[in-house]
Design brief:
The chain is mainly α. Helix content is 84%, strand content 0%.
Length: 239
């Protein structure tokens, strides 16, 4: 446990140093811009490592939940734990996120800590990391497009659509299948299964917010097209 604590402390320090360097290099940008760059980097790194774990290093999470943690799984979890602690502290200090995102970070930190302390179910935690972070680059891209005034474009539309599709497929469909395998397997401990249920419920909370966003955006687009059609009709009559 001492080596794990040291590893988490080193990773946390590295994320803080990276954020500090970005703030120094991007002096004209705000703190959130640089924090989101760190978040983007973590998302890409986490997806790459956990994808390799799931498809190459193994075991397959749908058939081997509750198995002992492998060295690579531990590395992936320690790196992400350091990041989540950093981002949680940043969000609390700057009051940048609402209760749902803070609950997500809290559950992620506690879940990884539990997995590392038990020494098992690392493959499920890595699978959850993969599904959660796969949509992260799109979420950050959407924010950066807004900040640079490029959101209301074809690229912005594509990012939104791809984000919603990936979120529904990975977090709801694949996540539901993963949770089912977790619950029916005799290997994972009850507390791990409860954590899986909690994370899946949280995914549905995010899903409701995303559904509301998609509905509002579709309604705004419909009204805009309707107004354009009416404007075109009026011009035809005037002509």
């Amino acid at each position: 446990m001492t080596s794990l604590a040291l590893g988490v402390a080193i990773c946390l320090t590295c994320w803080i140093i990276l954020y500090t360097l970005l703030c120094t290099a991007n002096g004209s940008r705000g703190s959130e811009w640089n924090c989101r760059l760190v978040t983007l980097l973590h998302g890409i790194l986490a997806v790459c490592i956990t994808a390799y774990i799931g498809w190459v290093d193994g075991p397959w999470p749908f058939t081997h939940p509750g198995t002992k943690n492998t060295p690579l799984q531990i590395v992936a979890l320690v790196i992400s734990l350091g990041y989540f602690i950093f981002d949680m502290g940043w969000c609390v200090y700057f009051r940048a996120e609402g209760p749902v995102m803070l609950a997500h970070h809290t559950m992620s930190i506690l879940g990884i800590l539990l997995t590392l302390s038990l020494g098992e179910s690392g493959i499920e935690s890595c699978a959850v990391l993969f599904a959660s972070e796969l949509t992260n680059p799109l979420l950050q891209a959407r924010w950066f497009l807004r900040q640079t005034g490029r959101y209301d474009s074809l690229v912005g539309e594509a990012v939104d659509v791809l984000f919603v599709v990936l979120f529904v497929f990975m977090r709801i469909v694949v996540g539901g299948a993963m949770l089912f395998c977790e619950l029916v397997s005799p290997r994972p401990r009850v507390i791990i299964k409860c954590g899986g249920v909690a994370m899946y419920v949280l995914s549905w909370v995010f899903m409701v917010d995303i559904g509301r966003f998609a509905y509002r955006k579709s309604q705004a687009k419909y009204r805009r097209l309707r107004d354009q059609h009416r404007s075109g009709t009026v011009k035809e009559h005037d002509g």
